């Protein structure tokens, strides 16, 4: 499976304005340019919204629906403001959310598999004000639970992490604790699923992925998996527990599992 990671957040479409020769007008130009860019973005949002209503009228409305303007703008930015591409991506994402039952996921519905301790959302943010989703790989055993249950837990935790985004922050941090990882924990299909949902349904929501204390066996498996992930692989950083403590958290915010 070949995946490609879209370009980083692009700036809004340039506005066509002429510079004034008078220095005193520079500030008004800047404001005018910003307003023009905002107006253009809103125009594109409404265009996508109209297309979704005309060609995908059966899709749900409301939050994360076809009339959610914040969601539409996010996908427009991801697709470099291409109305056609954003409409296509959004239609698929909204349909997936409906079919998967994302809005129906609750703490109770994923409690059984969550009690394995294989993944959770950290209560506190990292030093860059990012919500943190942690996976404890040694607690994951393929086949112990139905794959759909593992996938539901994954999506529920992604949604939970995103709900903790503070104002001005747009992406989350993913951490895989690989201490104690063995061949019995290897699950390439599930790892691919994780990266897939971020690419197709949560574009640009994943800021970085830390592989902590990766043993030799995992590094060998990574050589196999890496080509399947394409540019997604560039999000990954192999590091130590010490690096996690010193570079990503403070003494008061570091997750308990990384304190020692």
UniProtKB/TrEMBL annotation:
One of its GO terms (cellular component) is chloroplast stroma. PROSITE patterns: CRAL_TRIO. This is CRAL-TRIO domain-containing protein. One of its GO terms (biological process) is cellular response to phosphate starvation. Signal peptide: none annotated. One of its GO terms (molecular function) is phosphatidylinositol phosphate binding. PANTHER family: SEC14P-LIKE PHOSPHATIDYLINOSITOL TRANSFER FAMILY PROTEIN. SMART domains: SEC14 (SM00516). Residues 109-229 form the CRAL-TRIO domain. Pfam families: CRAL_TRIO (PF00650).
